[in-house]
Amino acid sequence: MPVSLHGVPHLSSVSLIILSASLPFLFRFFIRSLTAYQNLLRANNLQRQAWALLAGQYSWDAYRLYVELYWEKRLTPQKLRSVIWQNLKYGFFWVFAVAVGAIAWAFATSVGVSGRVTSAGILLVGLGWEAITLRSYRQHYWTGPNQEQLDQLAGLQRTHTSSTPL
């Protein structure tokens, strides 16, 4: 394997192309993990609300509205920014750092221009496609309740809680 002046091995154009093609897939997997985490939060919160109903803390109307908002309409229980940070914090940051570092190393050390141009094209097309699909994905899967819905739900929960003896 050829070595540069500083002792860092060169990567081939094939390695660069493979690394460049893997980054959009990694990004897609990250987006899917965000959706799975949202679904877990949704199911956990639904279970808590059901327990509150059974324990007499909330009325049937409050539970029904909660189910309608978060299960039937699939509104998100947490803001997207919070979920992104939680997923990055629990492991994806390092995966992205290693992937970007490897791609940067491959771009810097690969020999020839054609592999770099091909890899840059793969990266641009792949990440561009993911950005386009993310926009529609965000509207479909990561829409939160509006303030009126939140106020209505809080009012129903507060009304029943204040009239229920401890």
Descriptive overview:
This protein has helices at residues 13-54, 60-72, 80-109, 114-141, 147-163. With 166 residues, the protein is an all-alpha fold. The chain has one domain. Helix 1 (13-54) runs antiparallel to helix 2 (60-72), helix 1 packs parallel to helix 4 (114-141) and helix 2 (60-72) runs antiparallel to helix 5. The protein is elongated, with a radius of gyration of 24 Å. The termini are far apart. The model has no long low-confidence stretch (mean pLDDT 86).
Q: Could you give a quick summary of the protein structure above?
A:
With 166 residues, this protein is mainly alpha-helical. It has helices at 13-54, 60-72, 80-109, 114-141, 147-163.
